[in-house]
Amino acid sequence: MAKVPSPFRPLNINVLTVSDTRSLAEDTSGDALIHALTEAGHTLGERTIVKDDIYAMRAVVSQWIADNSVNVVLITGGTGFYSRDSTPEAITPLLDKQVDGFGELFRQISYDEIGTSTIQSRALAGLANNTLIFCLPGSTGACKTAWHGIIKEQLDARHKPCNFVTMLLGPYQPPVHEV
User: Fold this and answer.
1) Given this model, what pLDDT does residue 159 score?
2) Domains in the chain, ordered, with CATH?
3) φ and ψ at 162, to 5 degrees?
4) H/E element holding 97?
5) Which segment of the chain is annotated as a signal peptide (predicted)?
6) pLDDT at 178
7) What does the pLDDT look like over 47-96, one tens digit per residue?
8) How distant, in Å, are the alpha carbons of 18, 84, 104, 157 from that of 87?
9) Measured over all CA atoms, what is the biggest interatomic distance in the chain, rounded to whole angstroms?
10) Confidence of residue 172 (pLDDT cuts 50, 70, 90)
11) Do 6 and 157 meet the contact criterion of CB atoms below 8 Å apart?
12) Strand partners for 135
């Protein structure tokens, strides 16, 4: 029996922008992520902005990872080294497992764009309660780099040899046609 190829399977994705200064009208990074995820065929669940405060971030993300309908959380902002940048400190304790390769690969890809400044990115990813979380820098360019260079393929069930979709949604079950 021939193996049925995996079709595209849309995911429910929430977007969180961490910023002390941006409003929704000025959130070009959040806009870029929303455009990219919807263009890829995924569904935007919620979008919000919170101040760069560990507990405010944890409160929002904790609600989202407790909601079984949320598959992925994209967080932009707060991954640098300024005194208020605290996204990694806020999110890491919530993770069940870290996706170490994400931060490594992100910095490798972004090196071609921004050179050694990439070492100042603390981009990271991980799994929490069967929800995949990506923490990205706040720049629009960095969000586009992460999406197009890594995230898009890893959220596509057709990407081989592996992706995160089966882990998040379970194995694909082709429709049964009655005769």
Assistant:
1) 95
2) 12-169 (3.40.980.10)
3) -155, 160
4) strand 97-98
5) none
6) 66
7) 999 999 999 999 999 999 999 999 999 999 999 888 889 999 999 999 99
8) 8, 9, 17, 28
9) 65
10) confident
11) yes
12) 75, 124
The residue among 42, 101, 52, 105 whose CA lies nearest residue 73 is 42
DSSP 98: E
For the chain, the first-to-last Cα distance in angstroms comes to: 18
The number of residues making up the chain comes to: 179
Cα–Cα–Cα angle for 40, 78, 114, rounded to 5 degrees = 70
Tokens of 129: 């309660």
Q: Does the pLDDT at position 24 exceed 70?
A: yes
Among candidate residues 167, 117, 115, 123, the one with its CA nearest the CA of residue 147: 123
Residue 175 structure tokens: 């429709």
Please list the residues that pair with 15 across neighbouring strands.
47, 74
pLDDT the model gives residue 4: 63
Average pLDDT of span 106-123: 94
Token pair of 88 as six digits? 């990694």
pLDDT digits (tens, 9 = 90+) for 119-134: 999 999 999 999 999 9
Q: State the Cα–Cα distance between residues 174 and 41, nearest whole angstrom.
A: 19
* Helical H segments across the chain, by residue range: 28-39, 54-66, 87-91, 100-114, 140-146, 152-154, 165-169
